[in-house]
Each structure stands twice: as C-alpha cells, then as structure tokens.
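Hi P.,

Sorry for the delay on this. The queue was packed all week, but I finally got your sequence through. Input first:
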Amino acid sequence: MGRSREKGTLRAHCALFLVFLTVAVLDSYAIDSPTDTPPTFFAVTSHHGEEHITGECSYTPTSGALHCDVHDVLFIPPDLQEITQEEQESQKQFASLTPEQLRKEKERFANSRGTLDPIKRQRILNRGPKTKEFYRLMDKALNEQDFSRAMAPGADHAKRTCKMLNQNFELEFKRVGPAKWLANPGPQGICNISKAYELERHPKIETWWKLTETVVSVGDTTAALCQGLGSEDKQVTTWSPEMDAATGEYELPCDFLSWNP
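Then the structure:
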C-alpha cells in the first residue's frame, strides 16, 4: 500500500516535471531554436524587380529588440500619361499667344542657345549617342526658332527617363511569433504616414526572409505634397527573395536615368 502511494507520488512528480520541461522548451524556442534565430541580414526584391531592399540587423537579448539598418533602391518609370498631358497643355498655351507674344517667345527661345557652358555641353554630349541625338533635334529647333518643334524631343526624352530613389532608414522589430518580427515606427514625414513592417522567415529556406509593408493610416491628406495619398491607406506591399534569386536582374523601361527626385 505504501509502495503504491510512493509510485503514485513519483508519477505525479514526473508528470509535473514534464509540464515544466515542456513550458521551458517552448519558452526557450523564442530565441534558442535554430529555426527562430533573429536575422542578421536580409535581401528582398519587388515582384517586378524595380525595387531592391537590404537590411543589416542586430539583436539585443535584454530588450528583445531587433534593430535593422535598411537600404532601399527604387527605379521609378516615367509617367507617360502625365508627360503627354503636360505636352498637350504647353501646346495649347503657345497656340493662344498673340503675334507679339509669339515674337518675344521666339527671341527668348533663340537666345537660350548661349546659356549652356560649352565645356558642360561637351560633357553632356559625351554621355552617349542618344543624348547627342536629343541635342541635335533641339539645336535644329533653335536654329529655326521653332519652339513648338522643340517640345517633341523634350517630351520624348522625358518619356524615356527613369528616376532612382535611394534611401536609408532604420527599423526596430519585436518578435510576434515563431520566425516573425514586427516593426511599427509610428507616423513619419510631413504627411504623418504610419506603416507597419513584418519580417517573416521563408518556410523552406532558413536564410531567406520576406518583408511586408502595410500602410496603417495616412494622417494628413490636405497638404500640397500629401494630396492623393489617401488612396494608399491600408495598402500592402511585399518584397521577397525569390525574385532576386531567380535572375538578379531588372530591365529598365527607359534609356536615361535621372538622379533628381
């Protein structure tokens, strides 16, 4: 009878020990499990390849924070509809000029030939044959004092010019689940845009991470630079490593690249 009670007590202690052991293992899984180790680096690309984001990260065990220095490179294609609309509006404005206004505009246009420094001009022409052709057409329009013809190569050049956005920023993530981290830096910029970033490990490749950005809210849509941003509210964008690993290339939809924002 006594031995039976001892065995029952032993079983109870063993069961209790297993419960504590299970809890301890689950708790330690947050950091110690190989599949849940915080990332030290990630590289992701947009679906079409026009944007590439890299991040170098460091984890602080005492605070549980994952700090990442992020580098974002984005190629922005030309807005063909906007450029065409601006060209049409300019043509309407010139068509409405009086003969005297037209004469002064031709003089101003012809005099603009000497505003470009010869050395700077030669450096520009050395960029390549497409740039030379652009300036050849512009010179021809200048010689003929035909500024309406000068609009065509100008608009064509704009339609073939991409812009590049190159920015660095910091994100601080907190673990929200197995191999899943969340950063919510709060309202940013003059438009007070709030974005949340989720960093999640690839289900099959341990060194790959997926980055998802969600626009939580757009605080100000009344300022001049913020108008139209209301449509981005709740917008979700995902960058993954698959695209980068597939080709590692992006075909630019343009012939020229402008460093100006």
